[in-house]
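Can you give me the bound-state structure? Components:
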Amino acid sequence: MDTQSQVVSRLRSVFASGVTIPEEFRRAQLTKLMSMIKENQEVIVKALHKDFSKPKFEAILSEVEIVVNDLHYTISNLSSWMKPEYVSKNLATKLDTCFVRREPLGVVLIIGAWNYPVQLILLPLIGAIAAGNCVVIKPSEISAATSSLIAELIPKYLSQDCYAVVTGGSEETKSLLQNRFDHIFYTGSQTVARSILQAASVHLTPVTLELGGKCPCLIYGRIDMPAAARRLVWSKFFNAGQSCVAPDYVLCSPAIRDALLPVIRQTLEDFYSKEPQSCPDLSRIVSPRHWTRLMELLGKSGGKVVIGGESDEEDKYIAPTVLVDVAEDDALMKEEIFGPILPILTVESLQEGIDFMNRQERPLALYVFSDESHIVNTVLENTKSGGFCSNDGIVQMTLPTLPFGGIGASGCGQYHGRWSFETFTHRRGCMLRGWALERLNTLRYPPYTESKLSWLRWSTSPESTCSLM
Amino acid sequence: MSWKIRACYGCQRNGRLTCRRTRLGEPCFKTYPLECVDLLKRARVSFQAGRTLKQCFRLAQLEALVRMLQDNEGDFVDALGKDLHKPRFETILSELIVVKNEALHAIDNLKQWMQPEHVERNLSTTLDECLVVSEPLGVVFIKGAWCNPVQMCLVPLVGAIAAGNCAIISPSMCTAQTAECLHRLAPFYLDNECFHVIFAGINDLPEVMELKFDHVFFTGNREEGTKIAQAAARSLTPVTLVLSGKNPCYVDQHCEIKTAAQRIAWARFHNAGQSMVAPDYILCHKVVKAQLVQALKGCLLHFYGPDPKESRSYGRMVNSEIFNRTRDLLWRSGKVAVGGQVIEAERYIAPTVLTEVGDNDPIMQQDVFGPVLPVLTVNNIDEAITFINKQEKPLCVYAYSNNHKVISRLIIETSSGSFCSNDSVLQSLMVSLPFGGVGASGTGAYHGRHSFETFSHRKSCLLRGTRFECVTYLRYPPYEDRNLSLMTWASTLSQKSQGWCQIL
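Here's the bound-state model for the whole set.
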């Protein structure tokens, strides 16, 4: 069994041989990845169920379908993405060819997270393969069953020379990071992100960080209460709230809160029945440690539980829970919740809501529920977030044509669809000159004279798209 | 990068015994961390108030920048003349006009760049608006390198302004006169709350970065770049790094040697060799090596005359440290074929070509930031490519050849920030080409629209209504296999026509 360094060196030699570059190779690998997902759908669903009782429906939607869609999108567009992009020229370069060439970076590292263990490894992997790189894949050890499955399936379908899976916990990740990579793609927490950046900075390795954050959900103005409640409840409690883009907390007026609570209660009952614990459509918390963290948060909170609150340690179960009377400095507001607990905070006006959101760290997503488009636009223009969605949650990340990523504390860089390809690509500016027009060139050579300068000032006029030296 | 001599009054007040100044007798302009904190606060307040967002504000600032350069051409020429002995011609072309063109390009295109971009939708979002909006990042920090001090601060600034950010600019302290010029002039042209010019040495930067910016843009050498990356890691700050490296230049046997020599000589020796994009070393096909060296000799004579020290078209080294370093490399490597004269008092090094340079010579172990051009011999292009690939990825790769296949091989089989065939440097000045590094030469790119994108966040927006629940209904619990089948069946249908789809 190779050591980590041996794996990385081996991949480096393979990359240098140029085998991952041709379009046919990339397309073939992507097609094999597609087969891997489609042929193993059942076992993937089973593994996800083992890790956190993920219902089959959720597993298919959020782990299988989303990857299949991105694959289809990437495979159909790969040729056009790979083509050189010709750019406009200026007076002096009319006879030249100027283009941007998209080149792979080399050997890249993808570190996945546990909450969507398949999607968070395979979506970046699609981009890395499409861009022509060799890849080291490190799935999260917390979603143990799914990660072992990935470690088993990838070598079976994809080229073992070009793609390697490394398993293990934080120690193994730390030692893996001692190696030099050409790009690191990390999904996870801020704390770990800092140490990844430190390790990467030694080699000047660029990093894409997909971090979490508290995604606020502002409900304001005229709304269709039942529809809003359905969408809010769906996006909050999908995967038992363990999504980086789940609405973390709600901001609304006291009147809306009072109108919303009974509708949420009803929607929860419609979705998960009167006994959510026995409903097969509700996931569990991924591990005892994460369950304990959530229960502690709930315990420390000064808010009042108005819906749910039940829990079962052995089952790693927490009921869909809603709290009110939560203050800005509450325990629940100090960190990303990442569980089926929804605090509702009240604001008196739209501006108060906007100011509140702007006081927090920049989130991965920001949500507004309102039937009034001017309210939606006001919030859109006056807040900052990775992504934005009005009158729904999570879905903005399922469209492969929209870039997905954070800003500030929620991360840097973007992916999905074409953006994954661009993340793992170097855009190299190329200029191919001929020998002609050397007489024009002599204008720039010493000995410098005023007349040469005048000519050059004229030729590098505002209409041109370049300055000529 | 600087002498440590007895502290000036300002530094003594701040408890320092020695002071960083670049030359004896020069005043110390250090901006202290407390001042930076205040400036950053003011910039943040302005940004949060939305001052930089409107298109008319951004246009006004860009126009002011152009005026600043036009109105004060003489001052910049003087300052760069004192700092680098830069000829007026070079200052105007490579510093002022480059920035002016970037600003004018941004002004012409700003409206289009600021437009939200509508993206292709899928079946379930057909009734929604799906768009990508470009938003400013906030307050950004720009640190320019000393070799082109005006260009390297102001070209990124054009992008930062166009994208709607506030900025703190730190010109290099090695070119102190130019830094002072920018510091003095900026408040008369740019908004005084949103844009500030500070004095900070490289060693101060980690401290400055602790103050937390929304993006850091740095141009310099690899060692400095690594320090910046490490400081950025501690504060989770995104960075763009444009770092110098050894830019190889391959000269093929089938080549217009005389023209090639002219273009290479110009690229290498302008600004007295102090350029991040100049060819660092030549890999010359053995068949044409003697010819090339002869042609270079002829060129240099034509460009700078028999005694370049007397030429008004030739510069000087920026400071003693760079002078000493370059002189040492010259003395300890290869054999002088052209030039080689040095005059310490003037920080003058003649345009020099070295031959018989070994792979392990000191000049091949470091970036050459001076007018010394080593020419190594290779037997064929394979050797050249192997040699290039043994080094770290550079900012630029250059190739001179009549043969398209040779050029293609060099593009395909090497990696670098950018590439140019049969010329040098120009690809880094094209407003429409992204300019940046890869690997050890950096991360990120700028120029033209790429500057705008570097300082923007692309925010994905999905604007839905709540009225049409018909499709969304399928996704809600209680989960039914029937609904799942319906959704995947509809997806497959759309895949056949569009290639992909998602129903949620």
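A couple of observations. Residues 497-501 of chain B have pLDDT under 50 and may be disordered. DSSP finds 16 helices and 22 strands in chain B.
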